[in-house]
Specification:
The complex is a heterodimer.
Chain A lengths: L5 H16 L3 H17 L6 H20 L3 H38 L17 H16 L9 H9 L1 H4 L7 H9 L6 H35 L6 H32 L17 H5 L4 H12 L8 H19 L4 H24 L8 H16 L3 H10 L13 H18 L5 H6 L3 H18 L13
Helix pairs in contact in A: 1-2, 2-6, 3-4, 3-5, 3-6, 4-5, 6-8, 9-10, 9-17, 9-19, 10-15, 10-17, 12-13, 13-14, 14-15
Chain B lengths: L22 H24 L10 H13 L4 E5 L2 H6 L2 H8 L2 E4 L8 H9 L6 E5 L2 H4 L8 H13 L5 H15 L9 H10 L8 E3 L5 E3 L8 H15 L12 H14 L6 H19 L3 E6 L4 H10 L6 H8 L2 E4 L4 H4 L11 H15 L7
Parallel strand pairs in B: 1-2, 1-3, 3-6, 6-7
Antiparallel strand pairs in B: 4-5
Helix pairs in contact in B: 2-7, 4-16, 5-12, 10-11, 11-13
The chains are: A mainly alpha, B alpha/beta.
């Protein structure tokens, strides 16, 4: 079920009404849990079983870890949780990929092996809820939280529908305490939550899908046919598309949770105003980058074992972060490049003794944008065709008149917007508007969404991860 | 950013909200949206636009389900746009006593649908097939018919209603209610080309809920639309693009070019047709064996479109052999005195004013002696 669908609108209204009608906090949570499972099952009912299995297992293992004082036993239990969750992820997300790579490896050795076609369908959101669930068992193991959550609260923490399929990746430490105490929602909180949903849907439907996606799709489908201006528009356009698509989803998720009284953290903070790559990752997909920092980078030793180990850890963390996005060497390459940038930036900083990185924002944006090519392209040939197109003067095809201009103007405005609000929050900025301006802004967003409706109804990009 | 206004702490259990009232602005914005939609709908109504069903796999699936459930009472129409635009379902119902089911799909092949009907033991009614030699001469099925048939079959077996079906149902209802979506337009294109444009292109096509379509060719610029259709069909058929070197030739020049190209055309290759003809024969026999009936009709064509078809698919090499191979009942509009007199304004389809008369004449030609009920 997509946030930008009429079905979701009906679903949300029904769930909100039932939630309000329930007399007790426990019954409200039961409504939200059932609704979350319906939300998930709307996509593929049998895969609800994986979510239930993962939920019950991690809750049970965390309780055993919490009760035990035997460090070896605690470690074995944590290992059990990690093995089961990561194996589920490996099988469903990387099964075909691993098999194909195994086949290529054998072929290099002269063995002709044709693996069976498994046709595995990726359970939607498995990367997100697996990471959310693991944060609980690891935090309990590290004694950072108690394993005292009841199964209802824990199940709702893992599966609460606003964050279930595409994040933000919630931490048990943030959401479980909110589930213990009945949430009160003020009229202004509720109104601001709905306003965020409108802004998020506008980002998705109008900016990502209408302004950027058609150009990106057209040029990436046949890069050799287009000249430099169109290819640049597509490359810059993908920066806009992926930002508005994913940020739009996150804003919707935060707004929906707020309507029920729950606080989700920001997932984006004007990433295209970042000055340097460490700064970029503090602003882009914050819930993933902090997860990787806390549970992977620090587990590898972080920056505690000398410079070389730090650079290695940065590279490894980003390589795995890249692979998290999907079973493709292109994602690994994209993650590896970001790991390299982070390590290089750190090296420059260590060498010059600088306290902060001062890579100009526009240069950071340009490098990030060019690196997105590896993320968007299906293979190296496609990526190479895009890069060569950036310098092609003549081409047989042109995008429809005005398309490239619209795209370039939109990305320029995005950059300005990010730099202006670099140190401010959306709440701070929009809270300063008078009621008439608020109404006009929301009306413009709603009317724009209506005007571009009736197209092909794209899913959110991050659903596939 | 001061922590007092930051929401970036991943462990935070509270969230700062934008201060002030947001319910009032949201309500005002919703009213403005409703007002805007109402304004567009009124302007479109004044300019003669009507809500129109948007054809898709869900709408088709509803009719496909009827084809199964109606059993022997069903008159199932299979074909492409000619069957949708030329036939009036009410007239068919009146004339035959059967319940018409419109399964024709724009620019799509008949074989995937015929295959599905032959595979479905519940289909025991009458199947009226819009025969086009060019369709059967194609090595691979064209259009959406294979996808729609497979999608119907998949959803039929599903235990629970899927999200996509529910969404399609809601979307269809919403779009068939508003003029802003007429003819499959987006509201933005309706606003630009129909509301703000002082001389909008009139809506000439209406899609009805039963998947029948009605075209008012008086609203279309002629002969440009007619020549454009023939040029497109010529290009699709042979790869010859008479518009390639000059995007805006005069009608006279374009007509001469098309005539010249048609005059040079040879007979289409029959290898794929022969294979598909045998497959069709098998499917027809399977339907007939369980009590069903299959009728083939070649719809009328006019002008250069007619010349193109006659040149590429002469009856003795295609139609006559097809009827002999399948043993099915067939009727060629060009052979029937009552059906001959109908003219297709765009060369390929009838105007909606001729629908009832044509359907009536077709029913009279097919049904008087045949024991079809």
């Amino acid at each position: 079920m997509l946030f930008n669908s009429l079905t979701f609108l009906v679903f949300f209204v029904v769930v909100l009404a039932l939630h309000q009608l329930m007399p007790t906090w426990t019954s409200k949570k039961v409504v939200l849990l059932i609704a979350s499972y319906v939300f998930y099952a709307a996509w593929n009912p049998p895969y609800l079983g994986i979510l239930l299995f993962s939920t019950v297992l991690d809750w049970w293992l965390a309780r055993l870890i919490g009760r035990s004082d035997d460090q070896a036993r605690r470690r074995r239990l944590l290992l059990g949780s990690l093995l089961v969750n990561l194996n589920l992820l490996a099988f469903f997300k990387y099964g075909d990929f691993l098999l194909q790579n195994f086949r290529w490896m054998l072929a290099e050795l002269g063995v002709d092996y044709m693996p069976p076609h498994w046709g595995i369908v990726l359970p939607i959101g498995i990367s997100f809820y697996t990471f959310a669930s693991l944060s609980y068992t690891i935090d309990v193991y590290r004694r950072e939280i108690d394993a005292d959550a009841n199964l209802l609260d824990y199940a709702l923490f893992v599966s609460f529908f606003p964050h279930l399929v595409a994040g933000p990746i919630m931490r048990a430490r943030a959401l479980l305490p909110q589930l213990r105490i009945p949430r009160q929602v003020s009229a202004n909180q509720f109104g601001w939550g709905l306003a965020m949903v409108v802004l998020g849907l506008f980002s998705k439907a109008v900016l990502a899908d209408y302004i950027f996606a058609p150009i990106v799709d057209a040029v990436y489908a046949a890069p050799a046919k287009y000249g430099a201006v169109d290819v640049w528009a597509a490359v810059l356009g993908f920066s806009g598309q992926i930002y508005y698509d994913f940020c739009g989803y996150s804003i919707c998720a935060i707004g929906l949770a707020l309507c029920f009284g729950f606080a989700f953290p920001d997932n984006f903070r004007y990433p295209y105003a970042a000055r340097g790559f460490a700064d970029f990752w503090r602003r882009w997909h914050i819930s993933l980058s902090t997860w990787l920092r806390d549970y992977l980078y620090k587990s590898l030793g972080g920056n505690r074992h000398g410079r070389r180990r730090t650079y290695r850890n940065l590279l490894l963390t980003m390589l795995i972060g890249g692979l998290w996005h999907g079973a493709s060497w292109m994602f690994v390459l994209w993650g590896g490049l970001h790991g390299f940038y982070l390590a290089l930036e750190r090296w420059v900083r260590d060498r010059n003794g600088m306290q902060t990185t001062a890579l100009p924002g526009v240069l950071t944006f340009l490098i990030v944008t060019l690196t997105w090519v590896f993320f968007r392209a299906h293979n190296m040939y496609e990526a190479a065709a895009i890069f060569s197109g950036l310098f092609r003067s003549a081409a047989p095809n042109h995008l429809e008149s005005g398309q490239a201009t619209w795209c370039l103007v939109a990305i320029a405005l995005t950059l300005c917007w990010h730099h202006i609000l670099r140190e401010r929050s959306l709440e701070d900025y929009l809270g300063a508007l008078n009621p008439a301006s608020r109404g006009a802004m929301l009306a413009a967003c709603m009317i724009a969404m209506f005007l571009v409706s009736g197209g092909d109804g794209r899913a959110f990009i991050y659903f596939q991860f | 950013m001061p922590s007092s206004i930051s929401n970036s702490d991943i462990y935070a259990t509270t969230r700062h909200t934008a201060r002030g009232n947001w319910i009032g602005p949201l309500t005002a914005a919703s009213l403005l949206l409703i007002g805007f939609i109402a304004y567009m709908e009124m302007r479109l109504a004044v300019r003669g636009f009507d809500p129109s069903m948007v054809d898709n796999n869900l709408v088709w699936a509803e009719q496909r389900e009827r084809a199964s459930s109606l059993g022997g009472r069903a008159l199932i129409i299979v074909g492409a746009s000619r069957a949708q635009l030329d036939l009036d379902l009410d007239t068919l119902r009146l004339k035959t006593g059967l319940e018409p089911v419109q399964l024709a799909l724009d620019a799509s092949s008949i074989l995937p649908v015929l295959q599905g009907l032959a595979d479905d033991p519940q289909v025991t009614g009458t199947v009226l097939v819009d025969f086009q030699a060019s369709d059967l001469a194609s090595a691979t099925p064209r259009g959406q018919s294979a996808v729609f048939e497979a999608s119907w079959e998949w959803n039929r077996r599903a235990l629970l209603p899927s999200f996509s079906i529910t969404e399609a149902r809601l979307t269809n209802h919403w779009r068939r209610t508003l003029r802003s979506y007429a003819d499959g337009a987006t509201p933005l294109s309706s606003l630009i080309s129909r509301v703000l444009n002082p001389h909008p292109v009139r809506q000439y096509m209406l899609n009805l809920a039963n998947r029948e379509r009605m075209a008012d060719y008086r609203l279309v610029a002629m002969p440009q639309a007619y020549l454009s259709r023939v040029a497109t069909d010529l290009r699709d058929e042979t790869g010859i693009d008479v518009l390639a070197d000059d995007q805006k030739p005069t009608a006279t020049v374009l007509e001469a070019r098309i005539q010249q190209q048609i005059g040079r055309l040879g007979i289409a290759d029959t290898s794929a047709f022969d294979v598909n003809m045998k497959t069709t024969a098998t499917l027809v026999h399977r339907i007939q064996n369980r009590g069903g009936k299959v009728l083939f009709v070649e719809m009328p064509t006019s002008g250069l479109e007619h010349d193109l078809i006659e040149r590429r698919y002469p009856r003795e090499r295609f139609w006559d052999r097809f009827l002999a191979e399948t043993g099915a009942v067939g009727l060629r509009a060009g052979d029937n005195l009552q059906l001959q007199k109908f003219t297709c304004p765009d060369g390929s389809h009838l105007d909606y004013r001729d629908q009832v008369a044509f359907t009536s004449a077709l029913a009279n030609a097919f049904w008087p002696a045949a024991d079809l009920r």
